Amino acid sequence: MSKLTLPEEAGRRRTFAIIAHPDAGKTTLTEHILLAGGAIRAAGAVRARGENRRTQSDWMKIEKERGISVSASVMTFEHTTADGVAKMFNLLDTPGHEDFSEDTYRTLTAADCAIMVLDAAKGIEPQTLKLFEVCRLRDIPIITFINKLDREAQDPMALLDEIASRLQLDPAPIWWPAESGNRLRGMVEMGTGKFQPYTKKPAGAKEDPGHPEALPLADAAQYFEAGEHEALMETQELIEAGYPTFDRQSFLEGHMTPVLWGSALRHFGIDELLAAIGEWAPPPKVMPARKEAPPETRNAPAPVEIEVEPGQPEVTGFVFKVQANMDPNHRDRIAMFRMASGSFKRGMKLKVQNTGKQLSVNAPIMFFASDRELAEDAYAGDVIGIPNHGVLRVGDSLSESGLIRFAGLPNFAPEILQRVRVKDPLKAKHLKKALEGLAEEGVTQLFRPELGSDFIVGAVGQLQFEVMADRLGEEYNLDVIFEPSPYAEARWVAPAGEGTKADLDDFAGKYRPQMAVDIDQAPVFLAKSSWETGYVSERFPRIAFTKTKERG
Predict the structure, then answer these.
(1) Would you write out the chain's pLDDT as a tens digit for each of its 552 residues?
(2) Alpha carbon of 217 to those of 146, 176, 182, 275: distances in Å?
């Protein structure tokens, strides 16, 4: 039983996501954060061979084969910071592949802070920009970690200028690198002048040597070659004068990013990053929500806009991800539940806001990638897994009263639409169930045309179809074929402005062959081209054709 008060328990939580372009080293960084946090004994390199290639945060077969992350995973560990405070870290590892931007977007709704990983040689890449935009939309503060210093890197000032110009963020260097690649000597801390030396891994060595203890830069001449030591001392003065000093308030408001450097693969700069997260990342914040009337209420009053404080007693939160079949031996479905307030105890009863269903949460799970253990209790900021058989879906809000609804988990219109059918016609029923399961997880979107029996599957990118085929084969034993569909775009339709349900029915009647429903039975118009979308929306001004739909 915790001796801390609810606000104190919430205050020691740090829930953060890691965002990066594919190949910036995000999964390796995740491993090394877990290693430095004392959560694992050895980090698995993503590019290693055979059995060494089993990283903790990648558990899906396709992830292990390709060395990429395609599903967001959650890892919880306790870490004692330098000032002796035990903090609870919830690390949300997002997919690095651009085809899974929707899964990433939803994961970011559960994070209070983001670690943006940049490749020191490549700087800001397209996917980083996309993810940054999501953080900006949600006002998520960003800590920047510039990775791969053990390889030849761009000029550090050029990297900071790029952050300032392309992201409109004030970069505040916390550390500064002394060279890169084969000439990497270490890095110096701004303000204190503390120098952290770097030791190269000897050729043929199996394990990295530890890096030496930090010492004052003035006393670190032995780690440099002729002229380098003086040059770094001059650079340090120049940087301290030329860049703003770190201001936590400006960082929390999303105007400034502290910049740290290192090499995840060589476990260099990781302790400094962990310290920064513990010290600066915000604890769980106040969340906007709506308080609805009970479902059975007649002439119910309008919902009331409220703010949910992390320290308030009622347990509330929302499902930002559903993961099925993490354990192939059991047909399991686990809803990832981000707590917004309260003190959760195992065995508690929670209600689903939109259905009024009550759940007894008897076997809640704390995650350690694909490892898991029973969670006896949890507080605001924590992410727990709730096993369920299709009762919970992405976007559902849960609370003790069943009246609290959190907003802001969107579905995006897919960019590729394909028909899917199963090779064995006797398994058509199984296919329907499997596709619905994957759609509820948010892996892909499923549209059922009003005419005809084929399913139309929508995704942001081609890799999602490969993952889908892989999982349908592995988990459901279904051999499927994807075929091009005649449709280019999907748009959710609803009455607009002065439009009524009669207007929607009139439109649906005229375009019956192109009407479908999504997994929530919401009406969808399938257009053959973007020109057709424009033409139809001009002809029917009383109908809204939207690219996004709020889940739950």
Answers:
(1) 568 899 999 999 999 999 888 788 888 888 888 888 765 544 443 333 333 334 444 444 544 454 443 344 778 888 887 778 889 999 987 765 555 566 777 888 899 999 999 999 999 987 788 778 778 877 899 999 999 999 999 999 999 999 999 999 999 999 999 999 999 999 999 999 999 999 988 777 777 778 999 999 999 999 999 899 999 999 999 999 999 999 999 999 999 999 999 999 999 999 999 999 999 999 999 999 999 877 667 677 788 899 999 999 999 999 988 877 655 555 668 888 999 999 999 999 999 988 888 999 998 888 764 467 788 899 999 999 898 877 888 888 999 999 999 986 777 788 889 999 888 888 888 998 888 888 877 778 899 999 987 889 998 778 778 888 888 888 889 999 899 999 999 999 999 888 899 999 999 999 999 999 998 899 999 999 999 999 999 999 999 999 888 765
(2) 21, 12, 20, 20
Question: What's the token pair of residue 455?
Answer: 């399913």
Q: What's 420's DSSP letter?
A: E
- Distance (Å, whole) CA 28 – CA 264: 6
Let me know: does 189 contact 175? Beta carbons within 8 Å. yes
CB-based contacts of 531, cutoff 8 Å, min separation 6: none
Secondary structure E strands in 400-542: 404-406, 410-412, 416-422, 445-449, 455-459, 480-484, 489-495, 515-517, 523-527
For 342-388, list the strands marked E by DSSP.
343-345, 349-352, 358-360, 365-368, 371-374, 377-379, 383-387
Six-digit token pair at 441? 């997880």
Q: pTM of the predicted model, to two decimals?
A: 0.81
* Cα–Cα dist 474/443, whole Å: 15
Q: Quick check: helix, strand or coil at residue 80?
A: strand
Where are any strands of DSSP class E within 148-265?
A: 170-173, 175-178, 186-189, 194-197, 215-216, 256-261
**Cα gap 98→20, rounded to integer Å:** 10
SS3 of 271-310: the string is: HHHHHHHHHHCCCCCCEEEEECCCCCCCCCCCCEEEEECC
Of 165, 234, 161, 157, residue with least CA distance to 193: 234
Rounded to the nearest 10 degrees, how much is the dihedral formed by the CA atoms of 128, 131, 133, 135?
A: -120
CB-based contact 76:368 (threshold 8 Å): yes
Torsion of CA 231, 232, 237, 241, to 10 degrees: 100
Distance CA(310)–CA(294), nearest Å, equals 23
Write the CA distances from 384 to 277, 318, 445, integer angstroms: 21, 11, 25
How crowded is residue 418: how many other Cβ atoms within 10 Å of its Cβ?
20
